Amino acid sequence: MIDIRHISLPLTDDVVRSLKIGDSVMLSGCMYTARDAAHKRMIEGLDHGRELPFDIQNQTIFYVGPSPAKPGQIIGSAGPTTSYRMDPYTETLLDIGLKGMIGKGLRSQAVIDSIKKNTAVYFAAVGGAAALIAKSIISKELVAYEDLGPEAIYKLEVENFPVIVVIDCLGNCLYD
Amino acid sequence: MRSIDTITIKNTVKLLFIQSSYDIGDTMLGMLGKAKENEDNDTARYVLDQIIENDLIARNDQVPMCQDTGIAVVFLEIGNEVCFTGKPIEDAINQGVREAFEEAYLRKSIVDDPLFLRKNTNDNTPAVIHYEFTRGGNVRVTIAAKGFGSENMSQIRMMKPADGVEGVKSFVIECVRKAGPNPCPPIVVGVGIGGSFEKAAILSKKALTREIGERSEDREYRELEIELLNELNSLGIGPAGLKGKTTCLAVHINHFPTHIAGMPVAVNIGCHAYRHATTKI
Ligand code: SF4
């Protein structure tokens, strides 16, 4: 059996420092969703001097574009999308306070360096385990960019959301 | 002649997309279970457990196994004794896709223009449709709901005849190694060899619609499928790319005659959310 750590969100520097690659973790607390289009809009906003639609300090972003919720569901299926597409925007967000990211797949060296510099962490959720992951999401609230449909930013409250540490704050990467 | 109202095609397309989005099927579940038994790394077993549990939840709750319910690809094999009545065939197929994605709460992931505006069409149409003409009085409808995490890791290369079997093998292996964790391993690899540039790509996509693990009918290609499967699994990428013995569940190769000067090879990667279905009308 695998050892599983339980951690609450938002993250703190102490918790981030204690996470090592390969750790299996259950996350509980709040996180924000954002993928390609939302990242593009956030960064363009910053470039034009606008604030982000939420306070990013110590927050965790989950790269996801869920399927539509069926009647009675909080959210549709909600697995991670491939993270490298967010790489061009990630350093900026880490520099202004982003602590955690949840996605799947490889990151650029620049992102790894920035994770190290900012004492942050990159978790992988199991790609394609979207119906399972949805069960750990207990509430969903629209934050911004509703017109982006599945790519809008939501605040999620989660309980025992399963992830694995893939890049830790020392810059170690489990995929290497 | 046998006449078929295209409403039958619409209904079939719709049903196949809904079923395959919710239900991975017993063959795939069996393969994932076996893969788990074969792993001795705890993380690999944990990941496979999550995938299996996910697929059971999707089937029981009738929800999509993955949030990326894909681009709709449809292969239509039309017998020469069939004549269609009713709406134009292309409209019927797109209507089937539209109804499936709307009524079954599947994610609409198609944008109208690939480069400039990229505005969502909001009904997951148009489908990518491949028509083939065969003999007889039947129509075979085959669908693939193709997620882009794996589609984006696919590659095509115009190889030299002198590259031979070793060349093909190293291209496929290089493609899977480069993809690493991105296409949600364990993957299924479709390989198309021969034809022209576009034919190889279509062959590789069609190879992915085979019942998982079904081998090529041709002995040499069958052996190559097995050899490649073993070599891909020795890469150690593992479930979710977190290391392990299960990187690939099956390799399917389709081939076609080609030009004396060339050997096009296409590698289409499919993820464990292997959503394919086929039926004969
Ligand atoms: S690659 Fe497949 S399993 Fe992974 S997120 Fe995309 S569609 Fe889902």
Task: Describe what you observe in this structure.
The complex is a heterodimer of chains A (176) and B (281). By secondary structure, chain A is of the alpha/beta class. Chain A has helices spanning 13-18, 36-47, 87-95, 109-117, 130-134, and strands spanning 4-8, 24-33, 60-62, 100-103, 121-124, 137-144, 153-167. Chain A has a single domain, classed as fumarase. Helix content of chain A is 23%, strand content 28%. Chain A has a 5-stranded mixed barrel with strand order 2-3-4-5-7. In chain A, strand 3, helix 3 (87-95) and strand 4 form a beta-alpha-beta unit. Chain A starts with a strand and ends in a 9-residue tail after the last strand. Chain B is built from 8 helices and 10 strands. Chain B has helices at residues 6-22, 26-38, 42-61, 89-103, 148-151, 164-179, 197-207, 219-233; strands spanning 2-5, 71-79, 82-85, 128-134, 139-146, 155-159, 187-195, 248-258, 263-270, 276-280. Chain B has a 4-stranded mixed sheet with strand order 4-2-5-10. Chain B has a 4-stranded mixed sheet with strand order 6-9-7-8. Chain B has a two-stranded parallel ribbon with strand order 1-3. The chains are: A alpha/beta (176), B alpha/beta (281). The interface between A and B is large, with 40 and 42 residues. Bound molecules: iron/sulfur cluster.
Descriptors:
heterodimer; A: 176 residues; alpha/beta; 5 helices; 28% strand; B: 2 domains; four-stranded mixed sheet; 40% helix; binds iron/sulfur cluster
